[in-house]
Amino acid sequence: MTTAKDIMHTGATWIPAHETLDRAAQLMREHHVGALPISASGEEDRMIGILTDRDIVVGCVAEGRDPSKVTAGDLAQGTPRWIEADADVEAVLREMQNHRIRRLPVVEDKKLIGMISEADLARHLSDDQIADWAEQVYARTSTG
Question: Ranges for the CBS domain (predicted)?
Fold first, then answer.
């Protein structure tokens, strides 16, 4: 059985909620990632959200806000999602499809150990699995 741990990439890095978005962008560049889990200030192992490069652009820069003054915590929204390291790939796909998310933190013993992204899915799954996943995650709901 292929697990979340088998397909994730390691080295996921936290951004504390009190850190500014310019620092988040620097960390993304340094680690070659497009998303960082946001930790509650002073509690590195408690996730309060995920910050993406798109969040920084759309939620800060495009609104004319200063990324050196807006914090990661300011943009944390919704309920964070994650998956246990020993979960099978079908559970990973369900979690991502059900919540229409493109990145999923992987935890083991309540500690962040990696992240699953679209690129990880593409490297490890069949074309049919990828097509089904993409249809669910990117499907638009009709507003008749």
Answer: 8-68, 75-135
Compute the half-sphere exposure of residue 94: CA atoms within 13 Å on the CB side of its CA.
6
Q: Provide the CATH number for the domain formed by 4-138 in this structure.
A: 3.10.580.10
The CA distances from residue 51 to 27, 28, 47, 129, in Å, are: 11, 10, 11, 26
pTM: 0.81
| The pLDDT of residue 136 is above 70 | yes
Helix (H, G, I), strand (E, B) or coil at 69: coil
Q: Where are the domains of the chain?
A: 4-138
Q: Residue 132 is which amino acid? A: D
Yes or no: say if 129 and 93 are a contact pair by the CB < 8 Å rule: yes
- H or E element, residue 29: helix 21-31
Residue type at position 127 = D
